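Notebook B, p. 112. Complex prediction, attempt 2.
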Amino acid sequence: MFPHFGATADTLSKASTIMFRIGTDAHLYDDPEDVNIAPLLDSKFDSEKCEALKRLLALIAQGFDVSNFFPQVVKNVASQSLEVKKLVYLYLLHYAEKRPNEALLSINSFQKDLGDTNPLVRAWALRTMAGIRLHVIAPLVLVAVGKCARDPSVYVRKCAANALPKLHDLQLEEHSSTIEEIVGILLSDHSPGVVGAAAAAFNSVCPNNYSLVGRSYKRLCEVLPDVEEWGQIVLIGILLRYAIARHGLVKKSIMFSLHGKESPQSEKDGLDVEFSLEKDSSMDLKFNSEMASMVSRCYIEGPDEYLSRSSYTNRIFSEFHNAKFTSGKSNDDVKILLQCTLPLLWSNNSAVVLAAAGVHWIMVPCEDVKRIVKPLLFLLRSSSTSKYVVLCNIQVFAKAMPSLFAPHFEDFFIISSDSYQIKALKLEILCTIATESSISSIFKEFQDYIQDPDRSFAADAVAAIGLCAQKLPKMAITFLEGLLALTRQELLTTEFGSIEGEAGVLVQVLTSIKSIIKQDPPNHEKVVIQLVRSLDSIKVPAARAIIIWMMGEYNNLGEIIPRMVTTVLQYLAWSFSSEALETKLQILNTTFKVCQIAVLVLLKWGKINCCGIKLLNVQSPSIEISKSSSSSSSSSLSSSYSSSKLTSSSSSFSSSSSRSEEVRVDDAFLFCCDVDATFFPLLNLVFRKKGFSVAYSENIVATFCFPFISLICLKVVYYLGVSKAQSKEITICSRFKFKTVSRQLTFIDTFNVQCIYLSAAMLYYSEILSNAFPCLITITAEGKCIEPLNVSIKVNCEETVFGLNLLNRIVNFLS
Amino acid sequence: MLQCIFLLSDSGEIILEKQLTWHRVDRSICDWFWNQVISQGDSFKQQPVIASPTHYLFQIVREGITFLACTQVEMPPLMAIEFLCRVADVLSDYLEGLNEDLIKDNFVIVYELLDEMIDNGFPLTTEPNILREMISPPNIVSKMLSVVTGNSSNVSDTLPGATASCVPWRTTDIKYANNEVYVDLVEEMDAIINRDGVLVKCEIYGEVQVNSHITGVPDLTLSFTNPSILDDVRFHPCVRFRPWESHQILSFVPPDGQFKLMSYRVKMLKSIPIYVKPQLTSDAGTCRINLMVGIKNDPGKMIDSITVQFHLPPSILSADLTSNHGVVNILSNKMCIWSIDRIPKDRTPSLSGTMVLETGLERLHVFPIFQLGFRIQGVALSGLQIDKLELKVVVNRLYKGFRASTRAGLYEVRS
């Protein structure tokens, strides 16, 4: 029974839809071809013609090509019924270009219609005629446009204005002056409706023919509020361009300052005094010049030579009128433009408001710019669709002049219904406009955002905190505390780190902390220590990688960290095999940094008297002699470092004393400095176990330390002890090579130490391949213990600047 | 300038295309667009401006219909967006709604409208008033006529007089037996209460909506007793700027019928009518929620249609929520809606319950944001008051009506 009932309901609803659709054109859209269209077109009844045309339109709407009906449709152009006419026009315009010859047939009818008494008929005829893209009829259309431009009906004149760009598109060189002349006529039309359309025509026909605007500039300004909204948008742009081209940028305006910055050779002294923007870094300067060039591009549109010329005249002009422009308001043209665009900031059309705001932004002295702020902010609330574009604009404004929006930071607070893009933009603006007085409220908001269900947005909020801290270093401590609290809090949740968003937030927290620390590392030593201690509990690989990076970066910082280093490295060595790839890479990186000093010493070759051979092999990590201290490398890292008596590798290296008694043995490193006879048996034992024969000498001279933690291989390729009676030296030759391949970086390090009697030779060869930034760095260091070291570096890189930078940095580092 | 407009259904089907210039835009752009929509999801649909490989696209979405405009030249993006909004407004006004079927059923009208609204990519006639006279909207009579006679033209034979008028928004020669004008203050309250329970932001977005039925070409002035509280305003084109600049008086020739005369904003308000107090505690994999709603500052009128809605955080598996007043609904997308309507005199409405967290999760770390809805008739919470409404040339009898109402706009309570 129920299915039956359901079926009835279904039919009923179907029936009701059918009822509802009766009388509409629904059936035509659904089945446009269920009758033969061609005979209908030739029917003598207008209604049948209409039906046929509607069917054709339906086919066009659905993307079918029905141009084969063109000849029959064209015949109907002479119909007296306006509806048929309209439909024919719609069809004609869609296909005229495809069927030029047949389209010509319709011209006579248009010509006739142009003389019709009904302005609607004249306008339609003109629109359609101009819409047919045929060079042959262009002169005819031009005459028609010229005639219609003087038509008594406003509507027809408006259509004439709209027809001009169509003609211009045909690129009729010989007629261009006539077209421009008609633009001029229409621009000075007494009806505001026509002026708007004429402005649009001006923009596409002759955007740089300022004499046309100049003729009636004042009137155009005055008529601006009465022009319809679309015309206003275009006209504002034209008037602004004219004013800039004619008078240059207004002294004291933001744009002038920016423009002046771009060309420092022009009256620099005068400018710096005027320049009231807050700017503290070269970044701002760079941004400013970008802004200036953007402005030139947008507002002094046109070919390049025009651009250069106009900026040149600007400069001359501003210099010339230096005295005149002290108030920034003495130029009549500028004044009237500002006056007439001011009320448009109240327009209901957001595009008009934005265009008007643009004029004021560019032309008004700095202190008056704030009048555009409220209208812009109001746009954000009153029209949701334009929110994104408006925000993009505000962002540009705010970057150039943060003080403008600083008091209105509350308007950029985020609500849950904002789309992700809008949220991101708002965050960025908040960062830009944050000041010392507002930052505490903003920070409070940010903290709220971190708990937002949208985790990628939460991560963005964290990043924003980092940005704010860079901007306002005074707040850095507060921010850091907040962020650290987050790491602790996030710890609880990382257990089920499967949720991607959480990991993202945590990584972002650490990135922000990293950027804050970077600003002033000595003050944040404790933070680094705290983070390193939390390594145990943080499971997200990317987060671990950042902490490990910090460890390496700041391994020299303060008192405590250098003492932690060894233990941390032990811990990392212990956990190495279970780490994710990116973490592994950072561990290697950190180890390398920690050993930088070591390597340096190594490179300074003959001076050292140390021996350190890493014997870690993860597959068989236990070495007999290491058992004594292997427990220290277990996971309880945080407590062990302070109790560890071991000095760090770096410190033992930097003391290049000839005799040091300290000997360190653990499972990560076998380390000996000026090994004396008592220790040798131990060494011997190790090497014997590995199947080497060891020779002993009182003085071990040529050795190297390389505490890389390498999984891949550590191979003592050959070991040669040459003991000569007179020198009593032992020489260890080893070859070390490891290769790590990851998505980001490829290292190929080759270490070659070949000690041949009395002249130990070393070759360090390292190649770093980066896929992320295509480059290949080759570092070669060669030397013998009695000769100076040769270091050569080669960077092969597609991007020269990057390569040079890198090269410089390496050279600095090595020297 | 715009080169082409496409109307797409919510399944990505092209309902119709309208080429605007000679630079034809191939339909394949829509395929590209829809592929992006599918691959990038909702965030893509919320982007109003998109750079495709070949064109700049502007889109707005109304009632599931995507209005997509393409261009290859530089133009003010807001102009395109505003225009599309206008098209959508006009269409939904004409078709009395907006959906795929309505557009398909009336595709000829849609074509005619588009053709009239935009010429060569630049807006031509967008004034609804004039459009209505040029192309008559479908109605019962015309439908019946077309059924009976098989013929009905909706294209007007004559050019509307308003095209030449300096008040294009007003149809000429209107006659009414009874002259009446109604002014509504419709306000929306936006508020943010942060996780500490502090009112971070509270402001009013308001509109002055006028419904006028007056003979001839009336010239009205409207003034407020306290215009200084208005933080910012936007006007219908009919409002003259000068009187507002000098005396803050609205002087205008109204369009016929319903329209939005002005919108305004009042910022930095200090009091909210309703409080929402959320409490969430979580422990050992469950979370207890307790939500109380009550009147904070009595506006003096009945507050009704109170609703609280929130998204359950994604980490919540199930929720068991009950309330001592009103109805609680949990939708399939984890949206929870608590409809309270009016606050009873004898008790404070509260919602409480337990929620089970995802396995492995001990405590809740992401907290929901509560959106409050309410409506108050008869009061404009901004405090804006209309002083008087005057007609310059007095017609024999003019009935004037004033109303005010406030409802919650973007009203959020974070927990």
